[in-house]
Amino acid sequence: MKLVIDANIPAADACFSHFGKLTRVPGREINAAHLKHADALIVRSITQVNDKLLADSSVRFIGTCTIGTDHIDQAVLAQRDITFASAPGCNAEAVVDYVLSSLLTLAERDGWALGERTVGIVGVGNVGSRLQARLTAMGVATLACDPPRAEAAPGQAFHSLDALIERCDVLCLHMPLTREGPHATYQLFNAQRIDELAPGSVLLNAGRGDCVDGLALRSRLAGKGDISAVLDVWEEEPDIDASLRDMVSLATPHIAGHSLDGKLRGTWMIQQALARDCDQPSDLTFADICPSPALASLHLQDALPPEDALRLCMRAVYDVRRDHDALQRQTQHHGMRKGFDDYRANYPLRREFATLNVQLSGEAVALEVILRGAGFDVSSN
């Protein structure tokens, strides 16, 4: 069996070498010639899998080690009778870590408290639902908007997008990209909606770049300059708008979900799917491929303001400012396309909040609820 695999997928040998010969190719460089005699293709989000790529292919299985699937033309796969698998939820926890790190960084910079804000979550799937659960556990007020889920479960507490824009201080976007239909998300945040954002609002997009009209956002930031934006996803990646990059409060190169844990979980989920497709039982567990963290525990003994404690623990694991600074540095030194992609391809090791055990004693025991709510493993005595 011949497998073509994105060169940046971790633990490829451990997960796939027993299936056959592995050919590693950088994700943006995978082309039809690589697949001519291949049996399986394993990708991440930057490889566009369509009829052109599969024109002369013998591929029978395609897996993407990602939550998102809008880079896969599933209609073409169905026509060709190709088995398809994705990894829903694999890096959802990492994206939530990114959101919390970003919001607490902005709160510190601009002098407001997250606990006093109302956060609107647009798209309540794997990421949005986890974000809402963590914020609620931390005592932060939330409102959710997800029209497809509202139709499917009319009894649940969903709100309209207009209501979120009117009532929320922070808007976090986690919806998939859909270009057609009654709930299309393409440029859902258009010029009108961006103009309706109240002064002081924060717009954070860690979903899909094309869900926000970048020109309209740039115009609001350059004109009134009275809102803040955090962008991890962009239109025209990797050739993103340099002016918009320089105007937003935090700019990162589509790495919100790039924790080691999330990547490994995605690889393992696709390995399991391929094993099922090949009717080859697999006893490989996620624990088999996931290493112990370099920083396993942290001990707090004295009382700290809750959000200071959160920032301390979060930055011990992940600091979004590193990725913001790196995007600026890499794109200035190497150009936009190369700098954007090179940083993603050589992304520094990052773990998830849940890998850190926070030990509390003395007055710090009062922090247990908020730290546990944020996603840390907490113990107290």
TrEMBL record:
It catalyses: 4-phospho-D-erythronate + NAD(+) = (R)-3-hydroxy-2-oxo-4-phosphooxybutanoate + NADH + H(+). GO terms for biological process: 'de novo' pyridoxal 5'-phosphate biosynthetic process; pyridoxine biosynthetic process. The keyword Methyltransferase does not apply. Pathway: Cofactor biosynthesis; pyridoxine 5'-phosphate biosynthesis; pyridoxine 5'-phosphate from D-erythrose 4-phosphate: step 2/5. The active site is at R208, E237, H254. Substrate binds at S45, T66. Residues 110-256 form the D-isomer specific 2-hydroxyacid dehydrogenase NAD-binding domain. Residues 28-368 form the D-isomer specific 2-hydroxyacid dehydrogenase catalytic domain. Its EC number is 1.1.1.290. Keywords: Cytoplasm, NAD, Oxidoreductase, Pyridoxine biosynthesis. One of its GO terms (cellular component) is cytosol. It comes from the Bacteria. HAMAP family: PdxB. Homodimer. Catalyzes the oxidation of erythronate-4-phosphate to 3-hydroxy-2-oxo-4-phosphonooxybutanoate. NCBIfam families: PRK00257.1. Belongs to the D-isomer specific 2-hydroxyacid dehydrogenase family. PdxB subfamily. This is Erythronate-4-phosphate dehydrogenase. It comes from Halovibrio variabilis. The lineage of its organism: Bacteria, Pseudomonadati, Pseudomonadota, Gammaproteobacteria, Oceanospirillales.
